[in-house]
Amino acid sequence: PESGRPVRIDTTLYLPAKTPAPAVLLAHGFGGSKTDLDHEARTLAHGGYVVLAYTARGFGASGGLIHLDSPSYEVRDASLLVSYLAALPQVERRAGRPRVAVAGASYGGALALLLAATDPRIEAVGADITWNDLASALFPNAAGSAPGVFKKLWAGYLFGSASRSPSDRLPVSQCGRFAPDLCAAYQRAAQTGRPDARMLALLRASSPATSLGRITAPTLLSQGEQDSLFPLTEADANARGISAHGTPVRVVWRAGGHDGGDGSGAATSALSTWLGDVFAGRVHGRQQFSVAEQGAALSATSGLAVGQTLQVDSYPGLAGAPRPESTVVVHGAAQVVSAPAGGNPSAVTTLPGIGGALGQAAQFTQLGDLKAIPGQEAGFVSDRLSGRLLIAGAPTVTLTVTTRTSTDATLFIGLHDVAPDGTDVLPSGLVAPLRLTGLRPGVPHTVTVRLPAVARNVPAGHRLRLSVATTDLAYQLPTDPREYTLALARSAAPITIPTASGRVLHPGNPVAWLVAGLATILLLGAGVPLIIARRRRTLRVLPELAGVPISISGLVKEYADGYRAVDDVTFRVEGGQVVGLLGPNGAGKTTTLRVLVGLITPTAGEIHVFGDPVRPGAPVLARIGAFIEGPGFLPHLSGRENLQLFWSATGRPDVAAHFDTALEIAGLGASVDRRVKTYSHGMKQRLGIAQAMLGLPELLVLDEPTNGLDPPQIAEMREVLQRYAATGRTVVVSSHLLAEVEQTCTHVVVMHRGRLVAAGSVTDIAGSGGVQLVVDDPEHAARILVAAGISARPVPARRALEDVFLDLIGGDGQ
């Protein structure tokens, strides 16, 4: 109950094809609802689990107030839902006990951990991108025991995202649906920048840190590497706390996080694998650790930096496995820096929701480079690295800080990757906030700082740059002006770099942003799963196909329930062709394209692009630009800024993007500098095409690019594709507009019910079929007709492509 009134919780039950089966209670992130869980719930149900997705109290259609995962409210609600599951006949039981797991991300992830600590019926746990101690997460501090630096932008964003929801007719106030005590605590912290005792008590009651020792269910902890809200340090603290009591823990550092990225599908796949292992009794002792390395290697095909997943025998922690060769020395003299009153102006390294991208791309804003403000940052630089260095964890360094007048200091420390051409990247946009207290003006204070935990490969020839700044827009800053002298503890100070070694699972690709398009990434962030192959397949490089953009042989894609979406499809696409992929709904077109760009793995058969085998994350995908599932952009940015932000996330230099060429082909004109929220649907489609064309990929793959466009816009899109093909590159486009394909494409591939029914040039396909008169001697027949006064000349038999298409599919397509 809430103030004596019953609280109703909005739920949806998903049943697998076969029951009884183990159950999964699925919780959502802060500000969301059960609707956000639909894709993940369906995936788990498809995998054989009874799934109960629900909306937490205070959100969506559920009643009550938000108590922030309080044991007395939200955790109690979850326990009652477990009781509901336990009573269902569809839920499997063992030794009289229901088999139930709990999983969630962020807000739901903390709920999963807190529930597992209090409800002995929980058999498995999956917690993604969540916190350990909410107090230290919102008030992080790299050294000392004083209250940390207030993460004011994130706190304000979260508070605002749930401050209004009139669904249960609660009185409208500045607190919205927050419980009054929580609301008052936030207001005090927002005013002072410090947590008081009451706020700390509330935050710690909602923190898994207080109860990790009571978790006995095997636990999966996946954490995003692009996450300025709950960084890798939170998962590390949870892993250490749970495993200290002998409970098996598997840790995954994945791409993505609260700052965006494409890792949520991988998180769903990891959860599905974990649940299968736990319920099958395959989880014992130490668990393998996997980490998504950023910029891990160079593609032999493209020469571009690509990522990969590294699997290590056991989780090494944030300290990694330090080695003598991984200690990097930085140099620099003492430097005097200032902090303006109120922190205005402030450096911008992170913003809620796009921190990781901003860390790569300050040029997305017309305000210029705000990652560092002159006079507010000290820098210390290493020599060029003699070999590639994997940073896998949180490096440490010792600094000396001297204040001029204040007795405390607020600083922000980052470790940058600086390329030989001067390109400076702050990995994932992460800095370590540091608040020192008890200082004496003029007296040096030495402190060892733990830098942000990242997983990044720094190539040979690059330098590391240690930055120490006095401002950061994301945090609460001192109101009075400051001046500090910052120095290394020694003139040549070592940075201890944690690293890791293990087995490479598969190469990944930061250019997957280019491959899948931003819209696909947003869908992945909403929970669309990446499907991982369950069996090994031998993938061969075929040098004889090096000049062939696409070669598909015996392609099969079958899902777990036996549905075969693609059935033994074989065809080739040659260089310079514009190929139309045709078929009615359900023909397998989009599935074929998703396999082609590495989003899903085939059941059988092979796909080669320029002779290289395709699999999720394959380096050859860097040669493909794709537009699948429709466009998705940040509405408050201009079209140009969206493209620049997108390209910067690939890690490639701006000169390789060919922005002007892509924009000219797409035909956006001056509109590219308008905010995307003012765009028509057709303009967004063209911007999506321009995004896919960035880097001028040799192969362009487009799924229904004319969807929703009016006839003039369709004609413009036709010109876009023809202009692109005129550059000598290859285009594959799926469409249901047969007349448009006939005017645009040189070749067509027709699919029906997952099978290939025709492939060839438009001329050959349209010229097939119909009623034809076959004669043995055309010249003799022509003379007879002429003698009869009938003019005759040979012509190819040709019909409209639509008529041929309907004949090929038997006329039953919709």
Detailed description of the structure:
The protein has 814 residues and is of the alpha/beta class. 25% of the residues lie in helices and 25% in strands. It is built from 20 helices and 35 strands. A ten-stranded mixed beta sheet has the order 1-3-2-6-7-8-9-10-11-25, sandwiched between helices. Strands 12, 14, 17, 18, 19, 22 and 24 form a seven-stranded antiparallel beta sheet that branches. Strands 31-32-33-28-34-35 form a six-stranded mixed beta sheet, with helices on both faces. Helix 14 packs antiparallel against helix 15.
Index terms:
seven-stranded antiparallel beta sheet; 20 helices; alpha/beta; single chain; ten-stranded mixed beta sheet
Give the total of beta strands.
Answer: 35
Averaging pLDDT over every residue, what do you get?
81
How far apart are the first and last residues' alpha carbons, in Å? 51 Å
Rg over C-alpha atoms, rounded to the nearest angstrom? 29 Å
| Quaternary form | single chain
The rough form would be described as globular
The proportion of residues forming helix, as a percent range, comes to 10-25%
Largest sheet: 10 strands, mixed
Q: In DSSP terms, counting alpha (H) and pi (I) runs of 4 or more, how many helices?
A: 20
- SS strand fraction: 15-25%
What structural class do the secondary elements suggest? alpha/beta
- How are the strands of the biggest sheet laid out side by side? 1-3-2-6-7-8-9-10-11-25
Unreliable segments of 5+ consecutive residues: 165-172, 297-306, 357-368, 506-537
